[in-house]
Amino acid sequence: MTEPLLDIKQLRTYFVSAKGTRVVKAVDGVSFTLDEGETLGIVGESGSGKTVTSLSILRLLPPAARIVGGEIWFAGENLLTKSEREMQRVRGSQMTMILQDPLMSLNPLFTIGEQIAEPLRIHRGMRGHLLADRIKDLLRNVRISSPEVRMREYPHQMSGGMRQRIVGAISISCEPRLLIADEPTTSLDVTIQAQYLNLLKDIQNRSGLAMIFITHNIGIVARMCDKVAVMYAGRLVERAPVRTIFNQPAHPYTEALLNAMPKLTDKTERLWSIEGQPPDLANLPPGCPFSPRCPKAEDRCHREVPPEYQVGDQHFTRCWLWERR
Amino acid sequence: METSQAVATSETFAAQSFELTRWKKILSTLQRAPIFPLLILAALVCTAVSADFIAPHNPEVGNLRYRYRPPVWQDRGTWEYILGTDHMGRDILSRLIFGSRISLIVGITAVVFAGVVGTTLGILSGFLGGWVDQVIMRLTDAWLALPAITFAILLAVLVQPSKWNIVIILGIVYWTRYARVVRGEVLSLKERDYVRLATVAGCSQARIMWTHILPNVANSTVVIATLQLGVSIIAEATLSFLGVGVAPPEPAWGLMLAEGKSGLMAGYWWLSVFPGLCIMLVVLSANLLGDWFRVWSDPQSSQLSPVVVE
Amino acid sequence: MHGYIIRRVLYSIVSLILLSMMIFCMVRITGDPAVLMAEPGAKEEDLQAIRREFGLDKPIVVQYVFFVKSMLRGDFGKSIYYRIPALDLYVQRLPASLLLASVAMILSLLIGIPVGIFSAVRINTWFDNFGKIFAILGLSLPSFWVGLMLILTLSVYLNWLPSSGADGWKHLVMPAFSLGWVFTAAHMRLTRSAMLEVLGSEYIKLARIKGLSERLVIAKHAFKNAVIPVLTLAGINLVLMVNVAVVVETVFAWPGVGRLLYEGISFRDFPIVQTTVLMGGVMFVGVNLVVDILYAYIDPRIRYGN
Q: Beta strands A227-232 and A210-215: pairing type?
């Protein structure tokens, strides 16, 4: 069995308020792995820690955040031991990220060509004609027509869909091994979303890169991902291959998420929603963070944090209900 | 299992994540209060109020035998005139003390005047809308066509130099600062539910403006006012320096600077340094206080105040 | 966009009209305009002659029309002291003020922008705190006092620089510094806050994701975006400087329009005062208009939208 491309072990990232009084445990003991060419979907509500996890992997956290524990193994190296300069060589070339809002991601003052050229110049040392040709190639790969013209244009001259594709082009320019996409379709029109997802899938098939897809939309997960990790209040509550998650969800939260998704075959008229309020990350209750809202919660759930239990083949969950062995 | 500088120990954070006791909360608020500016401003007020008692000499009448005496620590200085004397033998220290009165009175009244006019017009403009709003907005635009100091100079030239004329002039010149901001706030306040409820309930517009709108814009008004205090004091000093402000022989600090200018080349440094220092201390304190107040009342706003250079 | 430009131009014209009306009214409210236009100690016959010459005995509306017409002709009255048209005097002195203001502006940008950038990049460190103190000091020290202190130290005690006149670059240093002082602080603060905002933006995040070194991120991506607000403000501030330079020019006897205004005040030469103030206002409205129009070209929302 080959080593996984990405191996996260017990990652903990906390935020400290300016006066040092409030500690928010944004990511608390998250572990998962990702093989070459695989797609992992990270699902959860806002505030569940999905984005902070991805920023931790890239080590691009805001100043108030600190990684306080765990290991991040990427291609056989622990990223947490690297210096900033070494990380800069990893970023953009071996692992990249697509952000949510394509308009904001592109610098309004530079041409598209210039923005795509940057990582190529820095990581691959390309110049001149070679560079220009590569840029045009990339633009064609993301299905942007007349690349010679587009190269010289500015972000505000393009549509939202095009911009997101350009951001995609930037991220695959140096043929990374891992691409993290943080809600890449949320700000796109519904009609464009499907096109974009197909494009990403295409790119992945051609280049064999691994992807982490962060989203709150389970439908996208079903289409794009091989395996799924469900996060709640900074913890990973369930991880499994995608079919398993949909057919045999183990954690009550996962069940609730699936139930909340309206289906055409539903006969009832009311929308199903999860009871209670989202958790306050600065004041988490003892025990399982989902226990206040869990319909199956037992006494123990409110008192102690459950460890991870194996439910099936490659299927794990953090829930006392699965304590059998 | 090495983790390097990227990873802080969880113990550090555990130590930091305790609950603040009540005492600590009070202490931290006190610590952040601007002690220095408050002290200075308090000293200013005390000086101004007790000027008659603490000033060693008459600020307007001098002893010609003691002209141009330097401060006590220099040659020819005496303890009788601690900070020296000016060209008419008047005691600098006493003039500074009485000058504080002028700065304080002019500064505060000008700010209050401008504030009242500006806030009123801002509320009327924002709340009533329509042609009232248009007229007031165009008026504001016209007002802002002239830089404040230039405007103030123009007005000051047309009237006799005096304290009260300056107050009126500064009020006339600076009301726009309040009006714009207040109008903006009123526009958003208008949409609030309690205002709408009051309208539906049949309250007169005047009543709504007085009881609902006014208290809510008071915050911003005070912030602007504290920052404007420094501006007003400098404006008054500028006008006095140019000769169109407070009239001699009143001991306005700006006037003292004007009188001291001619003595500068001769080395009579104390005539210029001390009044300027006083202006600086007072304005600095007012600005620090205003800045602190702004951050305290609205923690969202950035640390440095908006850039208005006039 | 054309609609926007037309509206802006109209606003400016209205502002100028209101400005002239304001001056017109203020003069009449506070006293007898004939007295203002006459030499001190003029006799009644002289005053009557002046009234006839300027149409001051006619109804108010006619007076105003006369006022506006003569201004549009470029006739702002004759200086009582110099006995030449006030506008000529103004135009004569303007270059000196522009020179002073330009040098002061360059100084304030050369110091203010880097300090602002460093403060933002090294936020909350000792440098940033030093920057904040500097900024508050800038607001708190009147420019003429800075000038006086400079004269005291550099002219009187150290004898390095001359304290008045305008014969060489040495004469320019202290006045430019005093004038630029306040603006340096303002530019520093604006750069700092612009930089902070830019540093928090998504494209900076993406630049870091691409693996750019921090230095490149700041120098290439952040810098350009952050200085735009300052540079646009700089244009307006330049004209502002010309207007508020009155005290600095007085302290240093710099032969610009500020000093002209001071002369007008001291000699009770109202035509000079009126001209200086009016022209200052016109230039100020003008530069604001130009900047707004330029913005219409730069900001894509105005360019393509509305």
A: unpaired
Q: Read off the amino acid at residue B77.
A: G
Q: How many CB atoms lie within 10 A of CB B42?
A: 11
First-to-final CA distance of chain C: 7
User: Closest-CA residue in chain C for B291?
Assistant: C136
CB–CB contact A23 B16 (8 Å): yes
Cβ atoms of A62 and A78 closer than 8 Å: no
**Tokens of residue B251, six digits:** 């001991």
Structure tokens at A157: 């001259």
What are the E-state strand segments in B210-299? none
Contact C156 B142 (CB under 8 A): no
Question: What is the Cα–Cα distance from A295 to B100, expressed in whole angstroms?
Answer: 71
Of C211, C221, C300, Cβ closest to residue A107? C221
Q: What is the pLDDT along chain A (325 residues), one digit of tens a residue?
A: 578 899 999 999 988 876 667 788 889 889 999 999 999 999 988 878 888 999 999 999 888 888 988 999 998 889 988 898 899 999 988 999 998 888 788 888 888 999 999 999 999 898 989 999 999 999 998 888 888 898 888 888 888 888 888 998 998 999 999 999 998 888 788 888 888 888 889 889 988 899 999 988 888 888 889 999 999 888 899 999 999 888 888 888 888 888 877 666 666 666 667 777 777 777 788 888 888 888 888 888 888 888 888 888 888 888 888 876 5
Q: How far is C257 from chain B (nearest CA, A)?
A: 12
Q: Is the peptide bond before B249 cis (omega within 30 degrees of 0)?
A: yes
CB pairs under 8 A between A and C: 61
> How many Cβ atoms from other residues are within 10 Å of residue C13's Cβ?
12
CB-based contact A80 B4, cutoff 8 Å? yes
Give chains near B: 3+ CB pairs under 8 A: A, C
Q: Chain C window 168-207: which residues touch A at a Cβ cutoff of 8 Å?
A: 201-203, 205-207
Q: How far apart are the CA of A241 and the nearest CA of chain C, in angstroms?
A: 29
* Residue B213 to chain A, least CA–CA distance (Å): 34
Chain-centroid distance of CA C175 in Å reads: 15
Nearest CA in chain A to B3: A81
The angle formed by the CA atoms of residues C171, C176 and C177, to the nearest 5 degrees, is 110
Residue C179: C-alpha distances to residues B236, C3, C147, C241 (Å): 18, 38, 8, 7
Cross-strand pairs, A3: none
Q: Could you tell me if B113 and B167 are in contact, meaning their C-beta atoms sit under 8 angstroms apart?
A: yes
- Minimal C-alpha gap between B298 and chain A (Å): 17
For residue B209, give the DSSP letter: I
Tokens of residue B303, six digits = 């640390």
Query: Could you state, in order of their start, the residue ranges of all structural domains in chain B?
Result: 36-297
Nearest CA in chain C to A170: C210
Please, which residues have CB within 8 angstroms of residue C142's CB and are 6 or more apart in sequence? B234, B237, B238, B276, B279, B280, B283, C247
Q: What is the dihedral sign for C-alpha C136, C141, C147, C149? A: negative
CA dist., res. B184 & res. B224, Å (int): 14
CA pair distance A72, B87, nearest whole angstrom: 78
Return d(Cα A48, Cα A237) in angstroms, integer: 11
A167 CB contacts (<8 Å, ≥6 apart)?
A98, A99, A102, A105, A106, C206
Quick check: A183 and A113 in contact, CB under 8 A?
Answer: no
Q: Which of A101, A104, A170 sits opposite C210 (nearest CB)?
A: A170
Fold for B36-297, please state it: MetI-like fold (1.10.3720)
Complex prediction ipTM:
0.84
What's the pTM value of the predicted model, to 2 decimals?
Answer: 0.80
At C82, list the tokens: 């110099």
Pick the CATH number of A6-94+176-322 from 3.30.565.10, 3.40.30.10, 3.40.50.300, 3.90.226.10: 3.40.50.300
Give which of A280, A230, A289, A315 is closest to A50, Cα–Cα: A230
CA closest to C226 among chain A residues: A109
